[in-house]
Write a structure and sequence with these properties.
2 copies of one chain form a homodimer. Chain A is of the alpha/beta class. In chain A, 32% of the residues lie in helices and 29% in strands. The first copy, chain A, has 6 helices and 10 strands, in the order βββαββαβαααβαβββ. The first copy, chain A, starts with a strand and ends with a strand. Bound molecules: adenosine-5'-triphosphate (2 copies) and magnesium ion (MG) (2 copies). Residues 44-45, 90, 166 of chain A line the site of one magnesium ion.
Chain lengths: 227, 227
């Protein structure tokens, strides 16, 4: 459902060129739960940003659901992102002046869901990630791990087919992290394709496949048999 | 060197009062390396912010180096913070329009260090945290873990006596995290007092003491014999 063909991303810093991705080839199958791991600076977030159409590759192609995303107009791209993709950012990217529940409702406002249904769904998602009672808090009135969980709830708001999660448990204690991973696995069993970047190797045990990145390349892939 | 006496922090959200800290009593000895662990939302960052004089307690006292910090004028507080304390924030708090090296120099500008000495020290600190070659990158031109390491280098800029680190390795792979912890332990051997909040229980093995927090209280303390 997501295909990368000879994907390159070269950042320019003044006159210097920095190749963050150096020719990535990958096929993610529908319904897979893939973990992407690797050292800090190896290109994981850059790869996820290209899959989420949040950035354009310098060279190569990204194909989502059979559509090459560089061929889409910006409004078609926004619709693809809003309807099919859920994105959990490494730095949460919550809207600071809105409450947790209003943040979770944002994707549903964009897709035209009625206010009453939006509010009920946002309440349900915040309860699922363990934040019942914190709906009215704004991001600066929440702990780091609580903000992260609001970002996860927001990514699930529109029932995405594909969830891209960049370090979704970096600020969570082991119990909260296990709860979030369980939510993701339940989603995956219902058919949601998940690509998760993580530094926590304890969390990748139940993934179908693990992609190990280093210096902008996929160094190795490990298929895991998952019960 | 840091004493907390009956420390309370009650946040007000509209009409609701939320006690994030409910009477913390603690003594951190000079030269100790203390880990603070506990569930997301248990009050760790709130405690560290009070120790760093970044926030005021609702009740109770914080005493640093024998001085009760609530008795200080704001300029004396700023001087204490700049000269004696180093702070690594959970969300990095880097200045977005400045390069990594300019960010690391900020505390030294405040304490009147000459430009040439500042630049040399900042270069050295960025090399120590593994960011040689990335000095000119601005925060949005760095990966999550790289930004975190710039924040650590900045906290060490003024050779602090006390280092308060809130989740310093949340975005780092295990190798980079081990390197950062080693830097902290070397500092501690030189006499720097360190209080580190972390979710990564692999990193607390070599700390002198571990404080377990839950619901705004210290649930237990564990002294560890450290070789
Ligand atoms: N400004 C605020 N207004 C209201 N509530 C707040 C505010 N800041 C923090 N809180 C609440 O206080 C509690 C403790 O927050 P704190 O940030 O200290 O937790 P933490 O232990 O650092 O959590 P984490 O591990 O997720 O970073 C949380 O439940 C949070 O919602
Ligand atoms: N806008 C940019 N301009 C220049 N260089 C960049 C930019 N964004 C990222 N980089 C560089 O590209 C490399 C890959 O960054 P990326 O964020 O993908 O790494 P990562 O694997 O997600 O790391 P982490 O685990 O620390 O989050 C890094 O070395 C970073 O410095
Ligand atoms: Mg990243
Ligand atoms: Mg915190």
């Amino acid at each position: 459902v997501i295909v990368a063909i000879e994907l390159w991303k070269i950042y320019r810093l003044g006159k210097v060129e920095y190749p963050a991705l150096r020719g990535i080839n990958m096929q993610i199958r529908r319904g897979e739960f893939v973990a992407v791991v690797g050292p800090s600076g190896s290109g994981k977030s850059t790869l996820l940003n290209l899959f989420g159409a949040l950035d354009r590759p310098t060279r190569g192609k990204v194909i989502i659901d059979g559509v090459e995303i560089s061929s889409l107009r910006s409004d078609q791209l926004a619709e693809l992102r809003n309807k099919k993709l859920g994105f959990v950012f490494q730095t949460f990217n919550l809207i600071p002046y809105m409450s947790a529940i209003d943040n979770v409702e944002v994707p549903m406002v964009a897709s035209g869901v009625s206010p009453r249904v939006r509010r009920a769904r946002a309440m349900e998602l915040l309860a699922i990630v363990g934040l019942k009672g914190f709906e009215k808090n704004r991001p600066n009135e929440l702990s780091g791990g609580q903000q992260q969980r609001v970002a996860i709830a927001r990514a699930l708001a529109n029932d995405p087919q594909i969830l891209l999660a960049d370090e979704p448990t970096g600020n969570l204690d082991s119990k909260s992290a296990a709860e979030v991973i369980e939510v993701l696995h339940n989603l995956n069993k219902k058919g949601v394709t998940i690509i998760m970047v993580t530094h926590n190797l304890n969390l990748i045990r139940h993934c179908h496949r693990v992609l190990w990145m280093k210096d902008g390349l996929v160094e190795k892939e490990v298929e895991q048999s998952v019960t």
